[in-house]
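**User:** Here is a favour to ask of a fellow structure person. Please take any protein you like and set down a full record of it. No explanation is needed for now; the record alone will do.

**Assistant:**
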Amino acid sequence: MAFDIDDPETELLVRSLAERWRVSPEEAIRRALANELQETSRQETSPQETSRIPVRPLADRGEGVERSGGLDRRG
């Protein structure tokens, strides 16, 4: 699934976050969404259930590593 960002303010936010994290815009979006899902999961579940939601490791995995597939695919 591909997305085009047509809103200049949203594009600026994505680029700013990508620069801050020193990642591609696609990687910044992925991490921001994973972080938000983790945060909202904590609010919606009990402490026992939260440990079963593996979203945070997805946000941290592969930092600075080019992968052959996925959103940050280059080339």
Summary: The longest helix spans residues 25-44. Residues 23-60 form one domain. The CA atoms of residues 69 and 75 lie 10 Å apart. The chain has a mean pLDDT of 76.
